[in-house]
Amino acid sequence: MKKSISLYDLSYSDIQSQLQEWKQPKFRVQQIWEWLYQKHVVSFEEMTNLPATLRQQLEDAYILGRLDTVIDLTSKDGLTRKILFELPGNVRIEAVKMTYKETEKSRRRNTLCISSQAGCALGCTFCATGQGGFQRNLTSGEIVEQVLFYIRELAKKDDRVTNIVFMGMGEPFANYDNVMSAVRKLTDPNGIGLGARRLTISTVGLAPQIERFAQENIQVNLAISLHAATDELRGKSMPVNDRYPIAELMKACRKYVQATNRRISFEWAMINRVNDTVQQATFLAEQIQDLLCHVNLIPLNPTKGFQHQASDPLRIKAFQAILNDYGVPNSVRARKGLDINAACGQLSQQYDVELKSAQ
Hints:
Elements: H1 12-21, H2 27-37, H3 52-61, E1 68-74, E2 80-87, E3 91-100, E4 109-113, E5 117-119, H4 128-132, E6 134-137, H5 140-155, E7 163-166, H6 176-187, E8 199-203, H7 207-214, E9 221-225, H8 231-237, H9 240-243, H10 246-260, E10 264-270, H11 278-288, E11 293-299, H12 313-325, E12 330-332, H13 352-358
Parallel strand pairs: 4-7, 7-8, 8-9, 9-10, 10-11, 11-12
Antiparallel strand pairs: 1-2, 2-3, 3-4, 5-6
Helix pairs in contact: 1-2, 5-6, 7-10, 11-12
């Protein structure tokens, strides 16, 4: 029978139980954990402080990762890199590295945008992932593997991952348990060891999961894909609004802030003459002006299945001015990776065009 369980899918306690069954000493658990998440090995043979018999047992029982690189694209400016990975069963996902140069206000950083599902079932009309439909949830190991790939690549240049956003393919809170398992591996001080505040989970607004997340007692950031301030407009592009309308979503957001005292980021794709109006800006500001939050204004990135255009810069400025008048913190997100379809909302399983451009 072909092996299908990845060692990356196991928690620390899972590995501990397996080694107990194999009558191995307890200290071997930490050794294996370090090989996986500190030394980032790609084969069992590299785990040189384990007995050969144990390495063989691991290799007989488990696989070490599932991701195979299909396409590797880098933007013309060299600051964005997108990988199309293939998983068993002809499942494909994308993950992006975005490098931000050092400025007077911020340090240089490498931010990863990683996927939590293959495709997405929520059908947001302006998102390429939603346009392509849903295949399956990713396991916690498949989520972490995307990060490990870039960790290894950056290490070749004596560089490192600084931030991670769950803003790739899929709705993270629709795969809640696996995402949180991955978060624990990423933030484990005895493993990868990233600070929780360097992680951000983005959701289209699954209210019950937002309230559940508020009880996790973890300092991971929360972002809400909002994109409209009225149910009528939001429902036209985001079907999830029928299940969790804005009033219910905002109630969950307020519970989150009250429980955590942490700021929420609201994501707003600026769509020309659709959601960039004075009316929408005013409705938005009135709903969140007393909430601990920040609004990210994102000029719409083009996708084949959505015909609208990004807002004119003057309309974005006018929208911002209204938010400023209400005292709502906001900023315009820089667009990165447009030339390789790696910008926000562009990740897709439709890889034919990209494959041609990569050859």
